[in-house]
Write a structure and sequence with these properties.
422 residues, alpha/beta, UDP-N-acetylmuramoyl-L-alanine:D-glutamate ligase, Protein-Tyrosine Phosphatase, Chain A, 2 domains, 15 helices
């Protein structure tokens, strides 16, 4: 209860949820003693794959006996997920005390919720100067609250595509502008660029960071992977090749994220990551709501022997890689869809080519989501489309046959509701 009260107070310190600027976070961190200058960090920017890449690095680093701090957003089930220190989520009491300390230092000044959470993360992380920090950027990066580090170990650029366009001026809603916002202010250290969806995006990233003095490593130029038979894949970079077991996450796009994580940690030679750390670590990756199979619980009981997945993808690039995985399966696929109002709903669904049924739903507890009935009307190009008010009603309404799968997707907020409900 104490934590909920503090969170509610902090959310009222600024009239906007997002206000892109570094002034407020810099002022707050100065009051806190500039804790961000006392940590060792790997920064992760991009549109998709940030969370999965972080979780893959985290799993490998734990196998190598490193302690990590992790800062991600948004959270799926509870706000504690955003605050990992010494390999563990912060408990309610410690998080409440941390936020209270930062609230007192801020002294009622206008500041966004994300900025004050970021200040809190930096303050707590500074208490563990030897830990590796894995820090995910928020909306963009150039004016993101996490972009106040003076140095870091590396910057990872995951796949970039169109998302959050409503935060850009109408004449600047392009992938080139997004690339500029995410990569033009990366620090001078090491930059690892993941596989991109096309050559134009990869070339644009390369051009945008051309004057950055970092050591640069690009997928397919400096590191790569190939899928082998018998559930193995082969990773290769300038340090040599490794035959690896398939990681415990599904889809080729996850192999791309895992490979980028491996490349990053091998490039940082002082970490002394060994092949065995990688082989064991990639079998223990914990990816919440990223093509996650629900194997038990209330919702799983509704689908009985059929497979139930939840995935938080919510932009065209996410839809594209998700559909590539679905197309590799020889079965009927049923999608339950809930989305936020500011997304391009038709563009998102345009990537799904072989869907048996589509059921739209309302996202509970999300006033900024599109109502399921309205979403159904917008997606009138799908012949077998229905609307159900609740997640449970949607599952019950689907005419599943043997080996069919049900996938709930369209929003990380929906994914959180699904997992909490389950």
């Amino acid at each position: 209860m104490k934590l909920q009260k503090i969170v509610s107070r902090l959310q009222e310190l600024h009239p906007k949820e997002i206000d892109l600027s570094l002034d407020r976070i810099q002022s707050l961190c100065k009051k806190l003693g500039n804790p961000q200058d006392k940590i060792k960090a790997i920064s992760i920017v991009g549109t998709n794959g940030k969370y999965s890449t972080i979780q893959a690095m985290f799993s490998i680093l734990k196998e190598a006996n490193f302690n990590c701090n992790i800062y991600t957003s948004p959270h799926i089930k509870s706000i504690n997920e955003r605050f990992v220190f010494n390999n563990e989520e912060l408990n309610d009491e410690d998080l409440a005390n941390l936020l209270e300390e930062v609230e007192e230092a801020n002294n009622g000044e206008p500041i966004t919720f994300f900025e004050i959470l970021t200040g809190a993360y930096f303050l707590k992380a500074s208490q563990y100067p030897d830990n590796i920090n894995l820090i995910e950027s928020g909306l963009f990066f150039r004016f993101d609250a996490t972009n106040i580090l003076k140095n870091n170990l590396a910057s990872v650029v995951t796949s970039i595509g169109l998302d959050h366009l409503d935060w850009l001026p109408e004449n600047e809603q392009t992938v080139e502008k997004i690339i500029f916002e995410k990569t033009s202010s990366l620090l001078n250290s090491n930059i690892i660029v993941a596989k991109q969806s096309n050559k134009e995006i990869a070339d644009n990233i390369k051009n945008t960071i051309s004057n950055n003095r970092s050591n640069k490593f690009f997928h397919n130029e400096n590191y790569s992977f190939t899928i082998q038979e018998n559930d193995f894949f082969y990773y290769e970079d300038q340090f040599g090749g490794i035959k690896l077991p398939m990681p415990n996450v599904k889809g080729q796009f996850q192999l791309e994220n895992v490979s980028t994580a491996i490349a990053t940690l091998r490039i940082l030679k002082d970490l002394k990551i060994k092949d065995d750390h990688i082989k064991k670590g990639i079998l223990k990756i914990n990816c919440i709501a990223r093509l996650q199979e629900i194997k038990s619980g209330k919702l799983k009981e509704l689908v009985k022997d059929h497979k139930l997945y939840v995935d938080g993808s919510h932009n065209p690039l996410g839809a594209k890689v998700l559909n590539e995985y679905l197309e590799s399966l020889d079965c009927n696929k049923h999608i339950i869809l809930g989305m936020m109002a500011n997304k391009d709903h038709n563009e998102y669904m345009s990537f799904f080519k072989d869907i048996s049924t589509l059921t739209t739903i309302d996202i509970p507890n999300q006033p900024n989501s599109i109502k399921g009935g309205e979403l159904k009307d917008k997606l009138n190009g799908f012949s077998n489309i229905n609307y159900k008010e609740s997640i449970e009603d949607a599952i019950k309404s689907i005419p599943v046959k043997e080996n069919d799968i049900i996938l709930i997707t369209g929003s990380l907020y929906l994914a959180g509701e699904v997992l909490n409900l389950n």
